[in-house]
Amino acid sequence: MAKKELQEKIKKGSDDSEQDADGTKLSASKNNDKRTPLYDFFLSGLKDLLYAENKLVDALQEMERAATTEELKDAFEDHHLLTKKHVSRLKKVFEKLGEQEESKECKAIDGLIEEAKEIIKSTEEGSVTRDVGLIIAAQKVEHYEIASYGGLAQIAITLGLEKVADILEKTLQEEEETDESLTDIAESHINPEAEKE
Ligand SMILES: [Fe+2]
Ligand SMILES: [Fe+2]
Predict the structure, then answer these.
(1) Contacts of 25 by beta carbon, 8 Å cutoff, 6+ apart
(2) How many angstroms separate the alpha carbon of residue 98 from the centre of ligand 2?
(3) Less Cβ crowding at N or C end of the chain, within 10 Å?
(4) What's the CATH number for 36-195?
């Protein structure tokens, strides 16, 4: 697209982003009046979540392979599939906002995934104690996601982006359900079984 044409689009507040002639990324919504510090903060939170969910797609597979009990393996497999859905929902949010889909490094999720790997390294393969650790590691991730989706959904409402808020709340609900079901698994048998080891 010619630079002039692109500038016209920016002026009109179009949502497309294009590569400028000198290689600088131009955000077409830069001049859009929806740009406020709160909107920018919201967008940055979405980029953080996109990074986190993408990392979790792989991490959950690793956790599934490392888990001892079939029940926890199944739980991680289910959440792996849901996480893929969370990635597509976030992509839909970027699309609805007319923003370019982008990830931003999220040190918190990198740290939490690192912690899960440490648990795998420090526990015996085939032990139920490993599952106790993996459940807690997974719940720390869920709590991070719950705080992020919950906060961003509230901001979306404040910004008058109800449809976006609905999408974020759908994922929020699934994260909460996952957290609860992990608690159930731990309390019903994983923890008592680990105590016998
Ligand atoms: Fe998620
Ligand atoms: Fe999750």
Answers:
(1) 17, 19, 100
(2) 25
(3) C
(4) 1.20.1260.10
